[in-house]
Amino acid sequence: MNLRSGLPYQLVKSGLVYDYPKLMHDVTTDVVIIGGGISGALMAFHLVEAGINCVVVDSRSIGLGSSCASTSLLQYEIDTPLHELIELVGYDKAVRAYKLCGESILKLGVIAKKIGLKDFHFKDSLYYAASEKDVDKLYLEFLARQKAGFDVMHLQQSDIQREFGFDAPTAILSKLGAQTNAYLMTHLLHQHSIKKGTQIFDRTDVEKVDDKGNHVILYTKNGFNITAKKVVYATGYEVSEMLDKDVVKLNSTFACISEQFSEEETYWDKNTLVWNTANPYLYIRTTDDRRLLIGGRDEKYNNADLRDKLIPKKTELLVQDFKELFPHINFIPEYSWAGTFGATKDGLPYIGEHKKYPNGYFSLGFGGNGITFSLIGAEIIRDLYLGKAVPDAQIFSFDR
Fold first, then answer.
1. Does residue 169 have a cis bond before it (omega within 30 degrees)?
2. How far apart, in whole angstroms, are the C-alpha atoms of residue 200 and residue 193?
3. Inter-CA distances, 279 with 129, 177, 283, 298, Å
């Protein structure tokens, strides 16, 4: 599956930072991870930190799937608002899912320091009403988050204009968020894991996974095999072909980034992630080299060719969306791209075991919180492998 197209900013900025070999010999290990993007990288990091031997394989060059197309916003809010998720899954599970995402942002900050990733910045998060019809819903969301213990403020139109320089009827300001570079984080996680003994192979396509009862054998197109006790599927949206059709619905999303603003130009420099209640929602963030990134305008995924043809028009519309908020800022797009993402029935990811794959685990961070979901998945799967009780696994299970 062609997961992204165009010129993702993180790939342009960072380039091909590290090389990895093809698999050219048979390997035996404890755990094999299929997928070397951010999900697989966080999975390997957590396994190797726990003393578990693992091998990572990816059919592409490392990081050139969804990870380099990620806009790398880190939020505890998931695609389903908390007050709606409570109605879907119950209060305790909904609040716990949100809390786990919040904890993940803090943990990712610790990991970024450990692996030497400088492009990680904690931010506030502003969730604003896209129209008057969303005002009551947004207030219900504020009350739900406040009751759950999140550090939030309810802002009125005058507050938003004064503090953030654009007009919106109302908003929730959250004091927990972050942004990073998912592509570079992926590579630095892998470099850390390699130093601890993890083997990572890219351009290595797995043709078949054979479950032998007490172990699995992976057969690759290169003609070599990987034998392991367990396999982790961390291939994101491509793994949807293995699962029931109702598990995930694929969509295309679009993003563009401005030219770099000079010190003399008007620039929006608030330390805040911005997104709204529209469906699909618009989101905006800054970069540490004085650029503005905007994304949204999602479409149902049909095929990569149709998605790619939409990039110029979607870029034009995103810039128009931005200028409606900030008419005084001269946003000139420099790079534009498109990617694929998945939506689930409740906005939650799928993590853990599946009855059809007895020696397998899945870390599928579907939705807008792919990076935080991937960290949650890495922790849950590590503990399941170690035989620990993991009550949180039920929240994200396939049979929830």
1. no
2. 9
3. 11, 21, 11, 9
Q: Within 13 A of 70's CA, how many CA atoms are on the CB side?
A: 30
pLDDT band at 269 (very low <50, low <70, confident <90, very high): very high
> Is residue 147 in some structural domain?
yes
Could you tell me if residue 223 is inside a domain? yes
**What is the tens place of the pLDDT at every residue in 98-126?**
999 999 999 999 999 999 999 999 999 99
Six-digit token string for 210: 């054979």
Residue 170: which residues within 8 A CB-CB, separation 6 or more?
128, 129, 135, 138, 139, 154, 155, 156, 157, 160
Give the residue carrying structure tokens 């696994």.
Answer: 393
Q: Give the model's confidence band at 385: pLDDT under 50 very low, under 70 low, under 90 confident, else very high.
A: very high
Kindly state whether residues 354 and 339 are assigned to the same domain: no
- CB atoms under 10 Å from CB of 354, counted, come to 18
Q: Whole domain around residue 391: which residue ranges?
A: 4-70+183-245+347-396
Res 4: pLDDT: 55
CA pair distance 258, 234, nearest whole angstrom: 32
CATH number for 142: 3.30.9.10
Three-state DSSP at 158 gives helix
Looking at the 3D structure of the chain, how many domains does it have? Answer: 2
What confidence tens digit (pLDDT) does each residue in 4-36 have? Answer: 557 899 999 999 999 999 999 999 999 999 999
Task: Report the pLDDT value the prediction gives residue 284, as an integer from 0 to 100.
Answer: 98
Q: What is the pTM of this model?
A: 0.95
Q: Cα(160)–Cα(172) distance, rounded to whole angstroms? A: 10
